[in-house]
Design brief:
Subcellular location: Nucleus
CATH superfamily of one domain: RNA Polymerase II, Rpb4 subunit
Keywords: DNA-directed RNA polymerase, Nucleus, Transcription
Shape: elongated
GO cellular component, one term: RNA polymerase III complex
Distance between the termini: 66 Å
Number of helices: 9
CATH topology of one domain: Growth Hormone, Chain: A
Strand content: under 5%
Order of helices and strands: HHHHHHHEEHH
Strand order of the largest sheet: 1-2
Number of strands: 2
Pfam families: RNA_pol_Rpb4
Helix content: 40-55%
InterPro entries: HRDC-like_sf, Rpb4/RPC9, Rpb4/RPC9_sf, RPC9
CATH class of one domain: Mainly Alpha
């Protein structure tokens, strides 16, 4: 019985190490892949340290100031390099209640002054693809007209769809306070 138990434990530990190895391999492959669309693949060590130091000094969570940036938020800023207001709102939780618009603009300013000019942002990506959707021009994609095959469902002369939606509710000519309980 003890042998069986030790074999079970060994099997569980082997699977755990295999899962950990697989996770580490996948994670490293994801971040080392040059084709992966990371926003900031060419940041220098100095620019990251400068950005982190600037953010920590100006917006760090020090004693008594709970509206500062957490370590995780500062790391996300380093990775994503948000240069637009919309991108900042994706990084911070409860951004409206924690920061004024001036503070958010100063965070964006710190990001712009500390990171290299080769950074890729959503706005530069949009300019490159402007007018294209899945490789097609916008004009080709949107041709509006009446589609004879368009069907809302089982709609007949008596508006069965509307009647079905109202099923169980008050009659159209009956007030809500007149409906029996």
């Amino acid at each position: 019985m003890a042998e069986y138990r030790s074999v079970q434990i060994w099997h569980v530990l082997t699977n755990a190490y295999y899962n950990l190895d697989e996770l580490i391999h996948n994670l490293l492959t994801h971040f080392e892949d040059p084709k992966h669309n990371l926003p900031q693949p060419k940041q220098t060590k100095e620019s990251i340290l400068s950005l982190c130091e600037s953010l920590r000094n100006r917006f760090g969570q020090v004693s008594g100031r709970f509206t500062g940036l957490t370590k995780a938020e500062r790391l996300q800023i380093c990775d994503l390099a948000p240069t637009e207001l919309v991108e900042i709102y994706l990084v911070f939780e409860e951004c409206d209640s924690r920061f004024t618009e001036d503070k958010i603009q100063s965070i964006i300013g710190i990001v712009k002054e500390n990171l290299t000019n080769e950074r890729r942002t959503t706005s530069t990506q949009q300019k490159a693809n402007q007018g294209l959707m899945n490789g097609h021009k916008d004009e080709e994609m949107y041709e509006y007209g009446e589609d004879p095959n368009f069907n809302l469902g089982d709609v007949d002369e008596d508006d069965a769809l509307v009647a079905e939606a109202r099923e169980g509710g008050p009659a159209p000519d009956q007030e809500l306070d007149e409906v029996p309980d």
